[in-house]
Amino acid sequence: MDYNQVIQFLYTQYPAFERQGGLAYKPGLENVLGISAACNNPHLKFKSIHIAGTNGKGSSASMLSAILQKAGYKVGLYTSPHIHSFTERIRINGIEIPRSEVVDFVTKNTSIFDTFKPSFFEITTILAFHWFAKQEVDIAIIETGMGGRLDATNIIHPEICLITNVSLDHTQFLGSTIEEIAKEKAGIIKQNTPIVLSEFQSEINTIYKSQAAQLQAPLIEASSDYTIESTAHNERAFELNIIKNATQEVHALRLDLGGEYQIKNCLGVLSVIDVLNSKGWNISPESIVDGLAHVQVLSGFKGRWQIIQNNPLIILDAAHNEAGMNLSMQQLIRLNKKTHIVIGMVKDKDVSTVLSFLPIDASYYFCQSSNPRAMTARELQELAIKHGLQGLAIMDVNEALAQAKKESHTDDVIWVGGSLYVLGELALN
């Protein structure tokens, strides 16, 4: 099989959440442990950082990757889902896994897959671990797929764990309340392993503290370690002055990720770096500054307040749940520009709640990806009308964006998002 055949084989033979939703969800670790053992336990052959959360885990992982690269380390990065290419999920120092390695791993291990009947995500996870072990990375940053406790990635033995913002998402699998979801995320906390919380959330903080205490895991709250003194920003970047509370030292940072929500993620990242340095890693202040200033280039990070064009300003943002959309729309409104919104969503999200955060005075172009879970453009339009949102239903993502461009002036802004699958189908130069 060639690469395209292998990817098609994985999607058709093994359940993939991105395409099948709940039918592909296989909670539990026994299966992935069995596959890993059959593949010589690659998850035991490299050091790692484990990240869970509803929003911000991919951004935080990319920031950490950039900083550690600048510190001179060989860094693996495992994230999901991808936007354009499957190989985006598995990177070393920002370079995607070669297609030949994907083909080789899958074709050599089909008998193992036949035995265990794994999900698409379980196979992808072991592939990532295999590649990181084979390439002898110094450290790998591993993002959970969903939840934490029963996530396939939760077989690793990390140096440190990080939990970012937790909000309502995947409620059909993780629980209907933020407390229930937090308990699942807290499942990545491990015995005697430091755990960093990026954001203080009063309603769930006791859950993390209780779990950490049971496992004798040192718990670090980034908001107690650091204080944001000041910020300055434009559409593309942030200038941050952050005070380290213990020493009153001021960190002057430039973050090349434009979303305002990245500020809280940044605090968690800084606390993780502090812990790593305390464990003997050598990460200088210069590496932190340089890494955060070049996250996109160093890590290959895409799809979060990503600006692809000026005049009109075009922003790609994968915000798809209520917390993510609320923050993205707040920032969009503050631009104070005539706004055009190209949006498509999957139907198993709380679409109505997400739509409630969108500005009524924007022009809308409702679209749909080719993903089987996608809500149709017409259905999305009809639901949006109930929230006072008016616009066109244009099925094709690229046609929707083309229409938005046609109706925009040079000083307008076009926001494209609602789903990574929408972004993945954009035909970008």
Q: What would you note in describing this structure?
A:
By secondary structure, the protein is of the alpha/beta class. The protein folds into 2 domains: 297 residues, UDP-N-acetylmuramoyl-L-alanine:D-glutamate ligase, CATH 3.40.1190.10; 119 residues, Mur ligase, C-terminal domain (Protein-Tyrosine Phosphatase, Chain A). The protein is 39% helix and 18% strand. The protein has 19 helices and 17 strands. The strands form 3 sheets. An 8-stranded mixed sheet has the order 4-3-2-5-1-6-7-8, with helices on both faces. Strands 12-13-17-14-15-16 form a 6-stranded mixed sheet, sandwiched between helices. A 3-stranded antiparallel sheet has the order 9-10-11. Helix 4 crosses helix 12. The chain is globular. The two termini are 29 Å apart. About 2% of the residues have low confidence.
Which structural traits does this protein have?
single chain, 429 residues, alpha/beta, UDP-N-acetylmuramoyl-L-alanine:D-glutamate ligase, Protein-Tyrosine Phosphatase, Chain A, 2 domains, eight-stranded mixed sheet, six-stranded mixed sheet, 17 strands, 18% strand
Annotate the secondary structure layout.
Blueprint: H1 3-13, H2 17-20, H3 30-38, E1 48-52, H4 57-70, E2 75-78, E3 90-92, E4 95-96, H5 99-108, H6 110-116, H7 120-134, E5 139-143, E6 160-163, H8 171-174, H9 178-185, E7 195-197, H10 205-214, E8 219-221, H11 222-225, E9 226-233, E10 238-244, E11 249-255, H12 262-278, H13 285-293, H14 295-299, E12 306-309, E13 313-317, H15 322-334, E14 339-343, H16 351-355, E15 363-366, H17 377-385, E16 391-393, H18 397-406, E17 413-417, H19 420-424
Parallel strand pairs: 1-5, 1-6, 2-5, 6-7, 7-8, 13-17, 14-15, 14-17, 15-16
Antiparallel strand pairs: 2-3, 3-4, 9-10, 10-11, 12-13
Helix pairs in contact: 4-12, 4-13
